[in-house]
C-alpha cells in the first residue's frame, strides 16, 4: 500500500476541475441543512455534519451510560466520553446549532435524556444498582466509535476545505479510540 | 480514447486539484516528518528499554511515510525539501521524561501539518493519505502523551491549532 504515491484521482485538466467541480462545491452547502438524525442523508444529501454531530452526542451518551452501569469503566471510557462531547460541541458550533448538554459527565443516577441515544435509552433505569445485562459495555462503545470514525473519515474526503479540518480531527480521534479500546 | 488495451499506461497522473498551495502543505508535512525522525533518533538514546522499542517502531513509521511523501512530491514535479542537519528542541533532552516530551512535540507538529494538508486540497487520494497520516500520528501522540502523563492521552481534536499543544 502506498496511498501517497498513487493518487487515483480522475485525470482531468485543471480547467475541467475548475469549471466542473467548483460550481458543485459552491452549491452543495446550500442544498442540505437541518437534515435529521443518523444518516439516510449521506447518499444523496451532501452535508454529513448534522449526522456526525448527532453521532458524537450519541457516543458520549453511550459511554456515559456504560460508565453509569459499571463505574469501573470510568478510567477507560471517561476520556472518550469527554472527547465525543467536545466533538458534538464543535460540530454544533460549525452548524450554527445551539449548544447541547447530552452526554454530559455520567451522573451517579443517569436520567433519561430527551434526545434518545442510539442504544443507551433502555439502560437508564434508576433502579439498577449493579451492571445490567443489557447495559452498554466496552464492546458497544467500541463498535459505536468505530462506526463514527468511518463516517467522519468518509466525510473528510469530500467536505469543503473550511469544514474538513474539524471532521478530520474527529475521525482521527475516533479511530484512535477504536484502536485502543 | 476508450480503445481497450491500446492506450499506453500514462505516467502517474498529476491530479488536477493539487495546486501549489497543496504542494506547499505537503512540503511542510515532509518537513515535520524530517523533524520527527530526528527527534526520535535523539530520544531513543534517553528512553528506557520498553519505550525505546516503541520509539523505534514509531521512527520506522515516520521514515516510511517520509519516503512516500518524497516520492509523491517528485511525481507532482516538486523537489522534496531536505532534512535539516539538526533541530532545536523546546527543552533540553537529558532524561527519559524529557525525551518522551520531545516526542509529544514532534507528533503534535506532524498532526498540525497533516490536518493542514487536508484543508488545502480537494484531491481524494491526497486527503485519504493525509487522513491516514493524521490518524497514525494520533495513535503515536496518544502513546507518548500517556508516557508523559498528559491527559487525555488521546488528543480530542488532533491537529487543531488551539488544542494541539
Describe the protein's architecture and organization.
- The complex is a heterodimer of chains A (181) and B (165).
- With 181 residues, chain A is mostly helical.
- In chain A, 55% of the residues lie in helices and 0% in strands.
- Chain A contains five helices and no strands.
- With 165 residues, chain B is mainly α.
- Chain B has one domain: Up-down Bundle (Ferritin), CATH 1.20.1260.10.
- In chain B, 61% of the residues lie in helices and 0% in strands.
- Chain B contains four helices and no strands.
- Chain B starts with 19 loop residues before the first helix and ends in a 17-residue tail after the last helix.
- The N terminus of chain B is likely disordered.
Notable traits:
heterodimer, A: 181 residues, mainly alpha, 5 helices, B: mainly alpha, Ferritin, globular
Give the topology.
The complex is a heterodimer of chains A (181) and B (165).
Chain A: H1 14-31, H2 49-69, H3 74-95, H4 138-156, H5 161-180
Chain B: H1 20-44, H2 49-75, H3 96-119, H4 124-148
The percentage of residues in β strands of chain A lies in under 5%
Largest sheet of chain B: none
Q: Assign the CATH topology of chain B.
A: Ferritin
Mean pLDDT rating of chain B: 90
What's the total count of β strands of chain B? 0
**Which percent band covers the strand fraction of chain B?**
under 5%
The CA-CA distance between the termini of chain A, in Å, is: 25 Å
User: Pair with the most extensive interface?
Assistant: A-B, 44 and 47 residues
Low-confidence stretches of chain A: 1-43, 107-129
User: Which percent bin holds the helix content of chain A?
Assistant: 55-70%
Amino acid at each position: 500500500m502506498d496511498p501517497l504515491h498513487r493518487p487515483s484521482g480522475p485525470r482531468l485538466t485543471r480547467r475541467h476541475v475548475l469549471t466542473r467541480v467548483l460550481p458543485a462545491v459552491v452549491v452543495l452547502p446550500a442544498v442540505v441543512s437541518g437534515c435529521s438524525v443518523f444518516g439516510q442523508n449521506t447518499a444523496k444529501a451532501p452535508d454529513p455534519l448534522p449526522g456526525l454531530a448527532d453521532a458524537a452526542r450519541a457516543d458520549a451518551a453511550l459511554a456515559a451510560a456504560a460508565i453509569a452501569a459499571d463505574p469501573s469503566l470510568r478510567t477507560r471510557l471517561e476520556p472518550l466520553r469527554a472527547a465525543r462531547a467536545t466533538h458534538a460541541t464543535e460540530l454544533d458550533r460549525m452548524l450554527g446549532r445551539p449548544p447541547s448538554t447530552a452526554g454530559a459527565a455520567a451522573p451517579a443516577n443517569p436520567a433519561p435524556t430527551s434526545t434518545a441515544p442510539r442504544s443507551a435509552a433502555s439502560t437508564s433505569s434508576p433502579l439498577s444498582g449493579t451492571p445490567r445485562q443489557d447495559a452498554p459495555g466496552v464492546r458497544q462503545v467500541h463498535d459505536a466509535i468505530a462506526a463514527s470514525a468511518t463516517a467522519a473519515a468518509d466525510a473528510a474526503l469530500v467536505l469543503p476545505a473550511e469544514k474538513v479540518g474539524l471532521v478530520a480531527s474527529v475521525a482521527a480521534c475516533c479511530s484512535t479510540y477504536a484502536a485502543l479500546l | 480514447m476508450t480503445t481497450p488495451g491500446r492506450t499506453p499506461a500514462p505516467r502517474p497522473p498529476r491530479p488536477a486539484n493539487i495546486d501549489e498551495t497543496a504542494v506547499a502543505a505537503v512540503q511542510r508535512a515532509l518537513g515535520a516528518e524530517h523533524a520527527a525522525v530526528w527527534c526520535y533518533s535523539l530520544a531513543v538514546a534517553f528512553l528506557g528499554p520498553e519505550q525505546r522499542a516503541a520509539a523505534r517502531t514509531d521512527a520506522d513509521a515516520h521514515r516510511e511515510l517520509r519516503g512516500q511523501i518524497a516520492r509523491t512530491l517528485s511525481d507532482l514535479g516538486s523537489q522534496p525539501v531536505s532534512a535539516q542537519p539538526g533541530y532545536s528542541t523546546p527543552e533540553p533532552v537529558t532524561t527519559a521524561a524529557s525525551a518522551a516530551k520531545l516526542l509529544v512535540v514532534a507528533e503534535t507538529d506532524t498532526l498540525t501539518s497533516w490536518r493542514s494538508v487536508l484543508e488545502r486540497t480537494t484531491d481524494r487520494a491526497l486527503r485519504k493519505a493525509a487522513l491516514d497520516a493524521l490518524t497514525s500520528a494520533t495513535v503515536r501522540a496518544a502513546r507518548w502523551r500517556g508516557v508523559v502523563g498528559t491527559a487525555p492521552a488521546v488528543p480530542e481534536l488532533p491537529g487543531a491549532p488551539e488544542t494541539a499543544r
